[in-house]
Amino acid sequence: MAGPDTVSGWVVRRPGPIASGPLAAVSRPAPEPGPGDLVLDVEACGVCRTDLHLAEGDLPPHRPSTVPGHEIVGRVVAAGEAVTAFRAGDRAGGAWLRGTCGVCRYCRAGHENLCPKSRYTGWDADGGFTRTALVPADYAYPLPDDQDATLLAPLLCAGIIGYRALRRSALPAGGRLGIYGFGASAHLAAQVALAEGARVHVLTRSARARELALALGASSAGGAYDRPPEPLDSAILFAPVGDLVPVALEALDRAGTLAVAGIHLSDVPALHYQRHLFYERNLRSVTANTRQDGREFLATAARIGIRVTVSPYPLSRAPQALEDLAADRVQGAAVLTPD
């Protein structure tokens, strides 16, 4: 049992297949805030597929024994002397992006997601698979007090990244959107697209996910490799499956755009220029997000009354949450809560 000056949590001790047990339980001293930091008493932390990629070694660790988790909802229990936007008791959210240089040409141009010195929660610094987390105040988001923390947590990465992917897909007004894979991020991005008047076609291997897609208002839901019922103006690939890139490109209408949303993707097979790219079809990647993306998405989510589907797990069952995510047993978003 951890004492008052320690926090219980999980670290990625030995990256490898989830069945090998890459997470290890730890107790560590509670963090102390630097001048610009917040210490959060964690109310909930979403479990992102990026956490799975880190645990399994698809993404090489940036530091040993890091606490994963970057969809953190918590209450401020301490703030550094330079912090003015938050005070003790405020609810705040910690997300994937946790630091940029602010002076490079990307930062100056509003593309801080491409900053070569960018830093990420749960990769470059400890995240939210724990009871107390340290978050830079300049990269934290104020969150409403009157909402369930488990429903807010997935907004902080799944929602924000899905929103950026939707914008990168260049979906025209009233357009036809295809979504490949339908987990945490996809089910939120789909609702934004629907609220903006799009027709949404979901293509995923999970029967439960197809049911959720139809319940949320999708026009159709089929298997991952199926052809949608109409040509697509835009598509987003959320599944980390490179084999689906040519499938999605072939489903695009002329001048359509495919945005690949994942931080990790299995190898993409050879593309046939005439079949996949001709007629000015576009293939785009999505890299992290900017804080402006986060602010825009959170405002949009509040305005449209976004519905968040979650599968809650106690913090003590974090390894099970990752195992279920790997096996596509999670409906919506997995979220950890204190035991």
Number of helices: 10
Portion in beta strands: 25-35%
Going by helix content, strand content and strand pairing, the class is: alpha/beta
Count of individual domains: 2
CA-to-CA gap between the ends? 12 Å
If you compute it from the alpha carbons, what radius of gyration comes out, rounded to the nearest whole angstrom? 20 Å
Tell me, rounded to a whole number, the average pLDDT: 96
CATH architecture term of the largest domain:
Alpha-Beta Complex
Low-confidence stretches: none
Q: What would CATH call the class of the largest domain?
A: Alpha Beta
- State the order of secondary-structure elements, H for helix, E for strand: EEEHEEEHEEEHHEHEHEEHEHEHEHE
Fold-level CATH name of the largest domain: Quinone Oxidoreductase, Chain A, domain 1
Main sheet? 7 strands, mixed
User: Could you name the CATH homologous superfamily of the largest domain?
Assistant: Medium-chain alcohol dehydrogenases, catalytic domain
Shape label: globular
Residues in helices, as a percent range: 25-40%
Number of strands: 17
Q: What does this 3D model show about the protein?
A:
With 339 residues, this protein is α/β, with parallel strands linked by helices. The chain folds into 2 domains: 6-156 and 309-337, Quinone Oxidoreductase, Chain A, domain 1; 160-285, Rossmann fold. Helix content is 25%, strand content 27%. It has helices at residues 49-56, 105-108, 149-152, 158-168, 184-195, 207-216, 244-251, 273-277, 291-304, 318-326; strands at 6-12, 23-29, 37-47, 72-79, 91-94, 97-99, 119-120, 132-136, 140-142, 176-180, 199-203, 220-222, 232-237, 252-260, 282-285, 310-314, 333-337. Strand 13 (232-237), helix 7 and strand 14 form a beta-alpha-beta unit. Helix 4 packs across helix 9 (291-304). The protein starts with 5 loop residues before the first strand and ends with a strand. The mean pLDDT is 96.
